[in-house]
Amino acid sequence: MYVLVENNVITKSFSYPKGFILNENQYSKDIFTKWTTAEKQAIGIYEVVVDKTNYRDSEYYINTNSTITFANNQATESWGTATAKRLNDENAVDENNQPVLDENGVQVINYGLKTEKKKIVKDQAAGLLAKTDWYVVKATEVSDYTVPANITTYRTAVRTKSNQMETAIDGAADVDALKALYEYTDDGNGNITRPLGEWPEEVI
Q: 31: buried, middle or exposed (CB in 10 Å: 19+, 13-18, 0-12)?
């Protein structure tokens, strides 16, 4: 991205190269790629430097809109302080701090990140178990059929891991701690892991 600066004020932005008129002179889009930095700046065209110091992962934080400023002969795009998303569930209230109820008179809940993440875990566990549900169904319909031991072991392991993941999510003290559960690290020996752990290896 580029901006046009006139008298130290940004007057135009260019999200992509395009021709423009400045002081009755027509400039083609080629100047953005063919002119040197000094040549562009001589007519007030500056490439925007992106400063993501305050920008946070949008899955966990609400970022402000970015702004572009010009100072010290440099155009910079930056963000204000990000706000952490809601971690825990909260009862919805209106502008008068009164409970918000649905059409059935039930309290509306604003769900937090923990609930959202646990739902994902539950859905993943259900998806994994669904692949072997037919063994269980067959065992209930065919009197002389027994679910293979490895299938039973696998299904138990999935449920155990699901519970462990949900417990870890519930235990996160803040948004950064929750985010850290999903971050992979390398121990230096080629073992790449994350605190939340992984699902048991599927059986065939």
A: middle
Q: Where are the alpha helices (DSSP H) in the chain?
A: 31-34, 37-42, 113-130, 133-141, 149-170, 175-180
Residue 93: strand pairing partners: 99
The reported pTM is: 0.82
Domain boundaries, the chain: 2-83, 112-193
10 Å CB burial of residue 199 (0-12, 13-18, 19+) is middle
Pairing of strands 74-78, 45-51: parallel
Q: Are 87 and 112 in contact (CB under 8 A)?
A: yes
Given the DSSP bridges, would you call strands 67-71 and 20-22 parallel, antiparallel or unpaired? unpaired
Using the 8-state DSSP alphabet, how is residue 15 labeled? S
Residue from 18, 37, 15, 38 nearest 26 by CA? 18
Q: Which residues pair with 185 in a beta bridge?
A: 193
Residue 4 contacts residue 12 (beta carbons within 8 Å): yes
pLDDT tens across the length of the chain (204 residues): 999 999 999 999 999 999 999 999 999 999 999 999 999 999 999 999 999 999 999 999 999 999 999 999 999 999 999 999 999 999 999 999 999 999 999 999 999 999 999 999 999 999 999 999 999 999 999 999 999 999 999 999 999 999 999 999 999 999 999 999 999 999 888 899 999 999 999 986
